[in-house]
Design goal:
Layout (H helix, E strand, L loop, with lengths): L11 H22 L4 H20 L1 H8 L3 E2 L6 H14 L5 E5 L6 E4 L7 E5 H6 L2 H16 L2 H25 L2 H10 L2 H40 L2 H17 L6 H6 L23 H21 L11
Parallel strand pairs: 2-4
Antiparallel strand pairs: 1-2, 3-4
Helix pairs in contact: 1-7, 1-9, 2-7, 4-6, 6-9, 6-10, 7-9, 8-9, 9-10, 10-12
Length: 314
C-alpha cells in the first residue's frame, strides 16, 4: 500500500506556526528600536536569505561532505538498501541516495531540499548497534524529515534568526532612532530596551530556532512511526543511540556541528545548562510519547479485531 504519510499530533504544526509568528514579532520589535527604517530591514532580510539559500539548495551535498560520508551500493549495504527502498515505496516517494559515514558514534540523518534530491546517512556505529527492526524505525523518522520538508522549515528559521542577529548588531554599533527618543523623554527606559534588544535578541532567536527544531523532531517521531507501524522500534533505537552517544560522542568539528541538528539524536554529550540549547527534545520524553503511541495502536488493533502485536524490549 502506497500513499502520502503525514500525521501530526500534539499540535506540533500549530506550535511551529506560533514560533515563527514570535520570531516575526521579535524582528519587528527590534526593527522599531532601530528607527523603523525600511531600507535597513530590507538589507538584513536579503542578507538572511542569501546566507541561507546556498545551505538549503545544496543541503544534501554539504551535509554528506561534512560527515565525510560516501554513497554505498546495494551490494555493500543490502539491509540498509532494502529498508530504505521499502519505506520510500510505502510512502509513494522516490528512493533517496544511501550513504554511510565513517564514525563509530551511533547516529543517522536525512537531508535534501525535496524528495528528488534527498539522501539518508547512517554512521557505522548505528549500523552495528541496531537490529533491522530498530533501523527501520530510525529510517522512518529520517525519511519523514524530508517528506515533511523540514529542511525548508529549518532554512526559514535560520534566515529569520540571521535577520534578528544583524538587527541586534545594528543596535550595538549604530543605536536606535526610536529608543533614542525614548531616552530623551523617559529617562533610562529607552537605554534598557536598547541593551535588552542587542544582547538578548540573538539569544532569543537561537532559542526559538531550537524550539522549532524540537517540534519537528516530535513530528518526525510520530509520522515515522505511522510509516513503519512500529513506534516501539524507534523507542528502542533511541534508547540505544542515547547510551551509545554518551559512551562514544561524536567529535565536535565544524562539519559535525553544522549537521548535528539534522541527526536523530544530539551527537554530542549534552549535560546540565547545555541541554537548554539542544536542538533535540529529551530522549526520555520522546520514548514516553512513542510508547504511548504504541499502546494506542495496540488498543485500536484489538478493537478492530487485529493481532495485539509484540513489544520490543530495550
Amino acid at each position: 500500500m502506497t500513499g502520502n504519510v503525514k500525521v501530526h499530533g500534539h499540535f506540533n504544526g500549530l506550535k511551529t506556526t506560533l514560533l515563527f509568528a514570535l520570531m516575526w514579532a521579535v524582528i519587528m520589535l527590534i526593527w522599531w528600536f532601530t528607527g523603523g527604517s525600511q531600507g535597513t530591514l530590507g538589507i538584513y532580510i536579503v542578507i538572511g536569505l542569501m546566507t541561507t539559500f546556498i545551505s538549503y539548495w545544496f543541503s544534501d551535498k554539504l551535509a554528506i561532505a561534512s560527515m565525510r560520508a560516501r554513497e554505498v551500493s546495494e551490494q555493500e549495504a543490502p539491509v540498509l538498501y532494502r529498508v530504505v527502498r521499502e519505506l520510500s515505496a510505502k510512502a509513494g516517494k522516490p528512493m533517496p541516495r544511501v550513504t554511510i559515514a565513517p564514525t563509530m558514534s551511533p547516529n543517522a540523518f536525512a537531508t535534501g531540499r525535496n524528495e528528488r534530491h534527498a539522501a539518508v546517512c547512517c554512521t557505522q556505529g548505528i549500523l552495528q548497534i541496531l537490529n533491522e527492526r530498530e533501523l527501520r524505525g530510525v529510517l522512518g523518522h529520517e525519511l519523514m524529515h524530508v517528506y515533511n520538508h523540514d529542511i525548508l522549515t529549518s532554512a526559514v528559521a535560520s534566515a529569520m534568526a540571521t535577520v534578528i542577529t544583524y538587527l541586534g548588531y545594528s543596535l550595538m554599533y549604530f543605536g536606535g532612532g526610536n529608543s533614542r527618543d525614548n531616552r530623551n523623554s523617559g529617562g533610562g527606559i529607552g537605554l534598557i530596551g536598547l541593551l535588552a534588544s542587542m544582547i538578548l535578541a540573538p539569544i532569543g532567536a537561537s532559542l526559538i530556532q531550537m524550539a522549532i527544531s524540537r517540534t519537528r523532531e516530535f513530528d518526525a517521531d510520530e509520522d515515522g512511526s505511522r510509516l513503519t507501524g512500529d513506534p516501539e522500534a524507534l523507542a528502542s533505537a533511541l534508547n540505544k543511540i542515547s547510551v551509545g552517544v554518551q559512551t562514544e560522542p561524536m567529535p565536535q568539528t565544524a562539519g559535525t556541528q553544522s549537521v548535528s541538528a539534522m541527526m536523530i539524536a544530539n551527537p554530542f554529550s549534552a549535560q546540565g545548562f547545555s541541554r537548554l540549547f539542544s536542538t533535540h527534545p529529551p530522549t526520555d520524553e520522546r520514548i514516553s510519547r512513542l510508547m504511548q503511541m504504541a499502546q494506542e495502536m495496540r488498543e485500536s488493533s484489538v478493537e478492530a479485531g487485529g493481532p495485539r502485536g509484540s513489544q520490543l524490549r530495550y
